[in-house]
Amino acid sequence: MRPFGERWRAPYACDPQSSRGRLYPEPISPTRSDFQRDRDRIIHSTAFRRLKHKTQVFVYHEGDHYRTRLTHTIEVSQIARALARSLGLDEDLAEALALSHDLGHTPFGHTGEDVLDACMAEFGGFDHNAQALRIVTRLERRYAAYDGLNLAWETLEGLVKHNGPLLDATGRPTLRYAERGVPLAILEYNVIQDMDLATHAGGEAQAAAIADDIAYNSHDIDDGLRAGLFQIEELREVPFLDGLLREIDEQYPHLELSRRIHELTRRVITRFVEDVVRDAERRLEALDPKSADEIRQAPGPVIGFSKAMQDADAAIKRFLYAHMYRHPSVMGVRRQADDIVRDLFGRFKAAPDTMPEEWRAGLTRDDEARLARRVADYIAGMTDGYAILEHRRLFDVTPELR
């Protein structure tokens, strides 16, 4: 395993100098690569700033020390950079993809997404990955020459395909989209700029995707413990975590709880990252790719967990699902958030004039699908706090989310 601090570029890395380009050609920057420019555009976007006030698991006002979408995104970015640097991938592209991976999330976490998906069932549904693509190609309006951020092809590809191909070799949706089909927003954009939906994304996108899993595992354990949703000794149900706790207790007996929690979560991150690097090196050695396209054409992902760590990851997720995501206090807040989003969608769709001028401009009630999508775009962009304020403006009673 190479030292994480050593920077190098492998032949299979995405190379900004041979990028497939942008939808709208732009002059080359004298100071930044295309992927560095993409990273900077994402950071300066309105959608990125809104992540500060969007829920991860807890609603935004429950405590200053719990994760939001923004702090989660920063943690994913740090892990993605570490993986990219160790594996010789383009660190700037991996960072850009990590920073953009949650741009399409709604207020109130997955609750908001589930509600919007149900409300949009007649109009193509709602998918946060597809929404992220809409944001960076249409909804961000910052530049004089075009809508969106005009990101490089490799960045858009990674945003769309970081979880794997969307189509199989015959053009049919892969398992994830087999029942409902590939989201319409992705298919529509694919007509404009071919995303090669039947191939894997480059290694940088795969690194960002696995970094997301690692960050979730570590910080949800941390947040759940600090919120009192479960106790640290309950984590011994997971053999992997039990082993780490035994190491900590042997090395630091009688350690205070806050330090014990931090020692556990940092070891979770370290073990997962080191496992990914080792297993990726094994897969890359077997594949021996000479270009980023050979990564894309590989029969499976080249960056992932070993079998043992896959089992540990699954066990942690089962524990968190039972003890945190479905905890009665969390479920109570989710039901209230469900009501807020559902109410807002119904009101804006029935009375589009209650939305700000920029969102209702050009709409007619005759085009129901366009109206519904505009309403979904408006709600999806809201922070938790703004959604609550809009509900208070439009309804007599608003849930307290407690």
UniProtKB/TrEMBL annotation:
Residues 69-217 form the HD domain. PROSITE patterns: HD (PS51831). SUPFAM superfamilies: HD-domain/PDEase-like. Keywords: Hydrolase. NCBIfam families: dGTP_triPase, PRK01286.1-1, PRK01286.1-3. HAMAP family: dGTPase_type2. This is Deoxyguanosinetriphosphate triphosphohydrolase-like protein. It comes from Microvirga puerhi.
